Every structure is written in structure tokens, then in C-alpha cells.
Amino acid sequence: MSAVWRASRAAVKRRRLQTFVIGLVVLCSTTTVLLALGLLEVATSPFDKAYAAQRGPHTVAAFDTAKVSPEQLAQTARRPGVTAAAGPFGQGVLDVPKGWLWMPGGSLRVVGRADPGGPVDRIEVLEGRWATAPGEIVVAWPSAGTPGTELLGTALEVPGTAPLTVVGFAAGMGKSADAWVSPEQMTALRPTTAQMLYRFADSSTPARLDAALDRATAGLPEGALTSAHTHLDLRKAFSSLADAYVPFMTLFGVLGLLVSALIVGNVVSGAVVSGYRHIGVLKALGFTPNQVVAVYLAMMAVPALVGSAAGTLLGNALAEPILRIAFSGIETGRAAVGGVSSWVSAVCLLGMPALVLLTALVPALRAHRLPAARAISAGSAPLTGRGLRVQRVLGGSRLPRAVSMGLGQPFARPGRTLLTLAAIVLGVTTVTLATGLTSTMLAYGEAGRGGGTLVRVEAGGPDDGRAAPLQDDARIEERLRSLPGAAGVRARALAQVTLAGQSRPAFADFYRGDDASSAGRIARGRMPGAAGELVAGPAFLTQYGLRLGDRVTLALGGRQTSATVVGELIDGNARAVEASWDTLLPLAPDARAVEYEVRLAPGADARAYAKAAEAADPGLRASVSDAGNTATTTVVAFSTVFTVLLSVVASLGVFNTVLLGTRERRRDLGMLKSIGMTPRQVVMMTVTSVAGVGAVGGLLGIPLGILAHRLVVDNVGVVSFPESMKAVWDVPQLSGLLLAGVAIAVMGALVPARSAARTTIAAALHTE
Q1: What's the rounded Cα separation, in Å, for the pair 716 and 243?
Q2: 558, exposed or middle or buried, with CB in 10 Å at 0-12, 13-18, 19+?
Q3: Cα–Cα distance between 382 and 665 in angstroms, integer?
Q4: Residue (of 155, 166, 178, 181) closest to 127 by Cα position
């Protein structure tokens, strides 16, 4: 083994360029694989990971305290299948006036809980502290931001008892309550409901959750269980945006894995095959076949270990900021999406060297069986006769001799050429997919924006703690239209309505005005233009089982009206609909607009308009709308990152292929130069040898990329892209993509081609 190690170490030092190329390919491939696996691992279930971090309940159950005792409920925590439980907690409902803590009003589900920790549903206090005494309340903060301390101390009037003072804001993934008080305060509220929080051994499906809850509550009086909701319901609501990203991320992750595996296999197997001459020399010196295999495995292991270690470190450094950008618009509670899991790093750190050794083992075992003399001759040049027929056909054409010889070279090593072709095909597929997704997402980001800047003007009132406007609704709209720069004004009213037959409320936006750009947000159908018409996003329509043409009944404050679904928005909140202003009048005849969307004419000064709008009435607050789009930024960023990574990896594979080819053909290059081939012709011949493979890779990769693009954009559940956003390809763009394969090949071949061109005749023939 001492001789094996000395021979391996000497070979690594002698073949510095080859060792560097293998290490660099493994480094880039490891980085790509780590990002791909980390992407797949995080994108698969961001909500589940955040839910597990806070020990969220699998089921939140409410019981009637008149039919079941606290002792009986405590016994359910010890039933088979229950892995953890918390409770019973007293649960009550408080009426919240409209505008309290900027809430829309309604009911507040309050739970009596001594502390935010425990085995199930660990609540995170964001501001202030936990409620520990009577007269204190902690409120769940629903938004993604952090509440300010100025809201602490707000009082809530409760009939029949002293007011409750807000001492803290908290957040929990389980959504088990809207607010929390101390157990003593809950006793004073005289609750009629008790809450139990369960975690079960099997919680994968609704049916299994129902069965687990039935086993836990078996023996309780009939009717004791009044309601229950599961983490699957929450996951569906909270992870809808994450689910929209999964098709994009999954496809890029799989492409990264495939390209990396192909390039590593191509580079390593080529390195071993090119060393057959060295293998023959070792055998001639007395090395046994097993020792020869060990030498080559050790040679490959050194750069593989270094490259995988460096790639793992680089991938982990890139993963956290990249994933943070990707999931910046996805609700995952307060558990942030960080870097990749340790198992992903371990798989890359150990798996990539294992892949290198496995790939090197196949050609090394072939050399294991070769006699020394045959091994020496096998490594000197391609086998006689390979590709000669193709060379003769090309030689008879009118192509320049350097070009015809270059086009025939890939047929001398068909196996290596196919591996290189596969990598280029996947590289072009990635470029095509990324180009299509970028065009689609840019069109999606522009949907509904119109031709000018958007200024939002909010009307104050008791709901937000500001003074109400001095002018009436119609006068404000007229005034905003008259200000310099206004091209269109659309008023919006917001109401929490109920759909007949549905238990969960929905938020409805009612619009009036002349903002024509809103039509660009429609995927199918049209925008509402008359009374009794509404539109909604695909998530809302799917959740409520609605289609275009269906009629629904909206209820608000004891009044009802019918409406027809006339259009499907490109996207939208899963609990929100949009309707015409005339649809609101039967529900709330005296409704006022809460916001005015002002579309400015091209070139208008948005800041000046916002100041003028605020000066028109002290109850108005104006702001220039941000034109950014989280989904567009995320998809374009990931497309760019993976396109660059995979293109570099594919080019390194081509670089290695050309490098091995020029070294194997040193004798041929020397002879060609001796009969008059110029360095420029050598470069042309070498580059042409892979440019043809790149062109074929482009022809095969473009349709695969177009197909992948169509599969992705057609399977995003929360976004319904119209056909105009899917048909993004034109002839100039496809022509450019065809050159992508050639560009990848030429980029990888140029350096070794120039090196071969500079090789002197004496240096090329010195072994003869």
C-alpha cells in the first residue's frame, strides 16, 4: 500500500491540470447538488418544518364543559396514539369593536393559558410579555411584520368584568387562539368551552387524524366534542404560495442533480481512460491489477474529497441567503427558513466522492483485465478505424479541412461524446426553461400595472385611529381626478362578507372607477362591470368549489345579494373576492371608500401628486405603490442562479472532454502541424469538434425546455397564467437559444484549443 500511495501521490502532482479540473468540477457539482437538494428539502414542506419547530398541534379540539369534566379531558392525553397533549384550557369568545387594534371587528377566540410553552403549541411572544394576572391579555399578531410597542396598553372593554389591557403580542403556527389570558381571568369570563391540543403518532391524512381523535375521545359523553380543526387545514391555507414555487424549484433541483452527475461521470471516466498508458507502465513495473485499480481510485479520491469539501462549504454559504430570498413571501410562521439541513451537507460531502470513485471504478476495472502492452497502446490514441467512415464522408465535402476534421472527431469517442451531449442538452434545457420562466414572470409582474405609476390614497377614520376626511366620498374622488397627473381613479371599499353555505368569512373588495389596467389581471372571463358580478383568484375558486358562471349569495349585516362569477383572476388571496361597487349597495348603502387607487399619466411626478392628495384633505394619506413582485423576483433569481451554475458545470465537462482529446491526439496534432496546419486552423478544428455536439444539444434541449416550461406554468395552483403569458417564444429568441448549446461548448473548448495551438511540433512528437 505504500507503493500504491506513492504512485498515486506522484500521479496527482504530475497531472496538476487534470487534478485541478476534477476538483473544480466536483466543487461546482457539489455546490449545485447541495443547493438543489436543499431547495427540494425546504420547498417540499416549509410549513411543516415551521410547524414542527413550534410543536404545533395536529388537532385543536373544543369540548362542551357542560358534558365533560376537566379530569375526563386530561385522560384523553394518555390514550393510544397520542404522543403529546396540552390542556384542558378554558376557551371563550369576546366581542371586539370595529377598529380595535385596527381589526375589522367581530369575535375574538380567547384561551386561558398559564404560559406560552409546553409540550404542544409553543407560542412565541413578539412584543411585551405573557399575561400572568387578571385584567391582562396577549393578542395574536396576524401579519408577517412585528407589532410596535406603542400598541401595548390598549384596553378592551368586556361586559360584566373589568377591561382587559394588552400586555403582549404573540404568534403561534397552530392558530389555536386569537388571544390568551391567564387561567384566573378565564375563570372570571365563565367559559363554556374547553380546548385540548393533541399531537398524534400518525397525522398524515385527514382520515387518520379523524381516527386518532376518535380513539382519544372514545368514552366521552355524546356531543361533548363540539369542533375540531387540524394542521392539514392550516397547511393548505398557509403554504399555498410555497406550493406555487415547488414546481419551479423541483425542476431546477432535478436538472442540477442530473447535470452534475453526468459531468462528474464524464470527467472521471475520461481521466481514467486517458491514463491507460500510465496503467500499462505501472503493470510493467510490477504493480498487480488490484494495486493499479487502487492507484487510480486514490488519484480520483484526492481532488474529489477536496472539491466536495469546498463545494459543501460554498453551498452552505450560498444556501441561506438564496433560500431566504426564495421564501421571503411565504408564510411559515415565526420559524424562519434558514440554511439546508445537516443531512444534505452530509450527503454531498460523502456522496460526491462516492460518485467519483464509483464512476472511476468502471473504466479502472476494464484496465484491470488489460495486459501491460495493450494498456500502453490503448492510451496513446483512439482505436484504429473509429469514425473513419464519417471522416471520409466529411473529407469529401466542400467544408474547410479543419472544419471537416473537427466535425468527425466526436465519432472517435462515441461514449464520451454522448455523455458530453447529454450534459449540453440539459444545460440548454435549463437555459430555455429559465428564459421562458423569466418572460412569463415578467409579464405576470406587469399584469394590471398599466402604463403609469400607481398612487394609493387611504381615507382615515376610527378604524385606523386617524381623523376621518372632511369631504364626502364623491367629493374626494372628484378632487383626486382633478389633481395634475391623474389618468384614472378607482375607489375601493372593503367588507367581510359571508358566502351562503360556507362557515368561513371572506373578504370582498368592491370597486368603482375607470382604471382600465385592471383588465390585465384576468386569466379567464372578464372584470365585473355591473351589479351582481364578482371575480376571484384560482385559490379562492378551488377552495369554495366555484367555476365561471356559478351564482353565490353574499351576506353582510343581515342583508343579502346574489352575484355571478364572471371572471378568474390571474392570482388572488384564498379568502378574497372582488366585485363591482353596485354589488355593495344592497349590502351597505352608506358604504364609503377606504382607499383610492390613482393611475398617473406617463411622466407624472408621483411624489408631487401624493403631496397634493394629502393637502386636499387632512384625512387622506398617500403613498407611491411599490412595483415589485415577490414571486417574479424569486423565480427570476432562481432561474439565473441555476442557469449560471449548470452552464458553468456543463462547460467544465466540455473543457475536460476537449482537454483529454487534445492530449490523446498530441501525435496527430504534431503531424498535422508538420505538414502545414496553422495554429488558427488547430483552434478551428478543436472548437468545431464540440461546436457540432453543442448544436445538436441545442436542437434537442430547446423542445425539452419548452415542454418543461409548459408543464411548470400549467401546474401552479395559486396562479392561473393566461395563454398570452405562456406563449413567450418567438423566432429570434429560439434562434438565440439554439446558439446556447454552441456557446456552452465553445466556452469550454476555447482554452484547451488555444493551448493545443501553441504546442510546438517537437513537443508533440517528443515521445516518438
Answers
A1: 8
A2: exposed
A3: 8
A4: 166
- The neighbour count for residue 594, using CB atoms within 10 Å, is 17
Question: Which one-letter amino acid corresponds to residue 659?
Answer: L
Nearest-CA neighbor of 146 among 336, 340, 338? 336
Answer for the pair 437, 444: CB distance below 8 angstroms, yes or no. Answer: no
**pLDDT, mean of each 10-residue run, the chain (768 residues):** 76 75 80 74 64 83 90 90 90 76 68 89 86 90 59 79 87 82 90 91 86 90 86 63 58 68 68 67 77 79 88 83 56 50 85 82 72 60 55 70 75 75 80 82 68 76 63 86 86 83 75 67 82 85 81 83 88 79 87 84 83 84 66 67 74 75 73 80 83 86 87 72 81 80 81 78 61
- Say if residue 353 is preceded by a cis peptide, omega within 30 of 0: no
Residue 234 Cα distances to 56, 58, 60, 605, angstroms: 11, 10, 11, 43
Question: What is the secondary structure of 106-163 as a DSSP string?
Answer: EEEEEEE-S-S-SSS-PPEEEEE----STTEEEEE--SSS---GGGTT-EE--TTSPP
User: What stretch of H or E contains 679?
Assistant: helix 679-713
Phi, psi of 160 (to 5 degrees): 85, 0
Do the beta carbons of residue 169 and residue 127 sit within 8 Å? yes
Residue 336: per-residue pLDDT: 46
Among 609, 621, 335, which residue's Cα sits nearest to residue 482?
A: 609
Does pTM surpass 0.70?
no
Question: From the CB of residue 433, how many other CB atoms can be counted at a distance below 10 Å?
Answer: 27
CA distance 56 to 74: 19
Question: Which residues touch 325 (CB under 8 Å, ≥6 apart)?
Answer: 633, 634, 637
Residue type, 309: A
Residue 364 near residue 291, CB atoms below 8 Å: no
Q: At what angle do helices 630-664 and 679-713 cross, to 10 degrees?
A: 150
What pLDDT is recorded for position 111? Answer: 92
Max intra-chain CA distance, the chain:
107
- What Cα–Cα distance (Å) separates residue 561 from each residue in 124, 586, 589? 42, 7, 12
Q: Cα–Cα distance between 449 and 451 in angstroms, integer?
A: 7
- Whole-number Å distance between alpha carbons of 44 and 36: 12
